[in-house]
């Protein structure tokens, strides 16, 4: 056999990416965009779940030891007297960290949108209970609440006590439901992404059947062939993941600014911290891993039916 | 039996049927000795391609035993088959080139599958393409090559990795007589290096070009072996490569 100088040309590595052994029109078509959309939606769902978690945590911390004492007394003088007794009694207790009488002006401002300015003024003013915000040292338990109620009612017969955590419980339940909804969405989107990759891999397998058979007959292993598809889908997933992260994170930042502009204390507690952003940033990586694993399992499963 | 003492390939009472049809191959028994040259002949539809498919491990038989390189390949798990396929070289009747790869990359495929580094591939493939007269077509894709050129690329791909057994299905069917002779000389050169060669052909003139060859004739799915040279288990009198040498 003649000895010849090497021919110089671009080399196609076995298992190389585009332009390699696989004809990849099917994979390079809609796949990156499908993954981008899935990642963007997953980022938004995950960010919403994390924001709700932060919001619930902040609100819980704020109201865990909180309770409201109302003095419901029709006569203004008597109401004022009982309120002062209640403040004095509460202030002297060692298990209470903070007592704050809500000023009448603040109360008037609270009811103003519903009842108007005249509601809290003049002889025909609607009787409004005196409100006292109280913060326990430690959480409010039923036993502590009963003990405080007994102590208070002995001196302030018109007093009513409500734990803030109690009347906010339905809100927390709703937040927890929304969090589970976000988790469900993330799981569904991951499953949908995997299904899309499965379909793409099946389709690519079909269009490359002849090539795969040749490689098989030349001694190619299932792993070698599966790696071709894995690499191909990984490229698509990296591109799609990056685009999806940009889109999703952009939407989250925009929404975050709009919510922050509302100026509501409870909503402001729903921002994302560094750890949350790191978790959100890991979503495209998880998408790449899921896509590669799905492609590998799909291809290996299909190859097993060949000799 | 261990190793390849009894032959590099052994078929014993092999039968093959597709689905529930009648057997396309029946009671096939033969031994291929290392370094021997075999022609497989027979009329169209006699079962040559089916027999070759069993030889290059594209098919399992319906019955019987096949040993290759001292191993029973019938009971071998499919994950172990690639290792055996890499020791075979195959020229398919329909070439089976990868249409979107260049001639160079098609020829390089067996080396890449075997994990040969690119630095080692470049010269080997260039030499091989030069030898089959296609160095100037290295970048051409199969659809742009003539039938004869495609066949030469297919042959180059089959022999590039120096297989222990070369199986060729009508390898000279699409080339002119000069090129056919040249390709046959390539097969003989490989044979002299120790490769066992099996060439399926209906060209009787080709048989005369390799005087030391053994002829396997298939007729309606049965192998005729009047000399007993192909018998399995082999008779002591059967010619071996060593004896011929």
UniProtKB/TrEMBL annotation, chain A:
It is found in: Cell membrane. It is a multi-pass membrane protein. The keyword Ion transport does not apply. This is Cell division protein. Residues 185-303 form the ABC3 transporter permease C-terminal domain. Keywords: Cell cycle, Cell division, Cell membrane, Membrane, Transmembrane, Transmembrane helix. One of its GO terms (biological process) is cell division. GO terms for cellular component: cell division site; plasma membrane. Its main location: membrane. The chain crosses the membrane at residues 33-52, 180-201, 233-257, 277-303. Pfam families: FtsX. Coiled coil: none annotated. Signal peptide: none annotated.
Automatic annotation (TrEMBL), chain B:
One of its GO terms (cellular component) is plasma membrane. SMART domains: AAA. Keywords: ATP-binding, Cell cycle, Cell division, Cell membrane, Membrane, Nucleotide-binding, Transport. It comes from the Bacteria. This is Cell division ATP-binding protein FtsE. Belongs to the ABC transporter superfamily. Residues 225-245 are annotated as: Disordered. The gene is ftsE. InterPro entries: AAA+_ATPase, ABC_transporter-like_ATP-bd, ABC_transporter-like_CS, ABC_transpr_LolD-like, Cell_div_FtsE, MacB-like_ATP-bd, P-loop_NTPase. It comes from Croceibacterium soli. It is found in: Cell inner membrane; Cell membrane. One of its GO terms (biological process) is cell division. Part of the ABC transporter FtsEX involved in cellular division. Important for assembly or stability of the septal ring. Homodimer. Forms a membrane-associated complex with FtsX. One of its GO terms (molecular function) is ATP hydrolysis activity.
């Amino acid at each position: 056999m003649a000895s010849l100088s090497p021919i110089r040309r671009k080399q196609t590595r076995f298992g190389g990416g585009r332009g390699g052994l696989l004809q990849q029109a099917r994979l390079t078509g809609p796949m990156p965009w499908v993954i981008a959309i899935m990642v963007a939606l997953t980022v938004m769902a995950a960010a919403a779940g994390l924001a709700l978690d932060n919001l619930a945590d902040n609100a819980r911390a704020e109201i865990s030891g909180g309770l409201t004492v109302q003095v419901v007394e029709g006569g203004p003088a008597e109401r004022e007297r009982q309120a002062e007794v209640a403040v004095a009694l509460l202030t002297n207790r060692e298990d209470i960290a903070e007592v704050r009488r809500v000023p009448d002006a603040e109360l008037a401002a609270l009811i103003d949108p519903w009842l108007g300015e005249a509601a809290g003024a003049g002889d025909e003013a609607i009787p409004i209970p005196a409100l006292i915000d109280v913060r326990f040292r430690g959480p409010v338990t039923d036993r502590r609440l009963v003990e405080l109620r007994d102590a208070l009612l002995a001196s302030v017969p018109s007093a009513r006590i409500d734990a803030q955590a109690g009347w906010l419980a339905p809100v927390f339940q709703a937040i927890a439901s929304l969090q589970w909804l976000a988790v469900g969405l993330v799981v569904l989107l991951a499953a949908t992404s995997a299904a899309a990759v499965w379909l793409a891999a099946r389709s690519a397998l079909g269009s490359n059947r002849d090539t795969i058979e040749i490689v098989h007959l030349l001694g190619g292993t299932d792993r070698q062939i599966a790696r071709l598809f894995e690499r191909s889908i990984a490229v698509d997933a990296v591109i799609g993941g990056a685009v999806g992260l940009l889109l999703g994170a952009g939407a989250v930042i925009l929404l975050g600014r709009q919510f922050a502009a509302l100026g509501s204390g409870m909503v402001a507690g729903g921002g994302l911290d560094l750890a949350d952003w790191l978790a959100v940033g890991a979503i495209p990586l998880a998408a790449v891993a899921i896509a590669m694993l799905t492609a590998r399992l799909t291809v290996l499963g299909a190859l097993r039916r060949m000799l | 039996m261990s190793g390849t003492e009894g032959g590099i390939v052994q078929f014993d009472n092999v039968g093959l049927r597709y689905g529930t049809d009648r057997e396309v191959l029946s009671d096939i028994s033969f031994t291929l000795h290392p370094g021997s040259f075999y022609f497989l002949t027979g009329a169209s539809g006699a079962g040559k391609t089916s027999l070759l498919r069993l030889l290059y491990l594209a098919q399992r038989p319906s019955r019987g035993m096949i040993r290759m390189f001292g191993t029973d390949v019938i009971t071998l798990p499919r994950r172990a088959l690639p290792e055996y396929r890499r020791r075979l070289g195959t020229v398919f009747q329909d070439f089976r080139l990868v249409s979107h790869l260049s001639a160079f990359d098609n020829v390089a495929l067996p080396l890449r599958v075997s994990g040969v580094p690119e630095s080692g591939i470049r010269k080997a493939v260039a030499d091989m393409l030069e030898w089959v007269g296609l160095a100037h077509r290295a970048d051409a894709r199969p659809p742009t090559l003539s039938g004869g050129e495609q066949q030469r690329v297919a042959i180059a791909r089959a022999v590039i990795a120096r297989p222990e057994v070369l199986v060729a299905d009508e390898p000279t069917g699409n080339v002119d007589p000069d090129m056919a002779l040249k390709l046959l000389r390539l097969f003989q050169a490989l044979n002299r290096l120790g490769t066992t060669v099996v060439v399926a052909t209906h060209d009787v003139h080709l048989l005369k070009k390799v005087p030391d060859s053994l002829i396997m004739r298939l007729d309606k799915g049965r192998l005729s072996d009047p000399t007993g040279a192909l018998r399995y288990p082999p008779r002591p009198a059967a010619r071996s490569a060593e004896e011929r040498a």
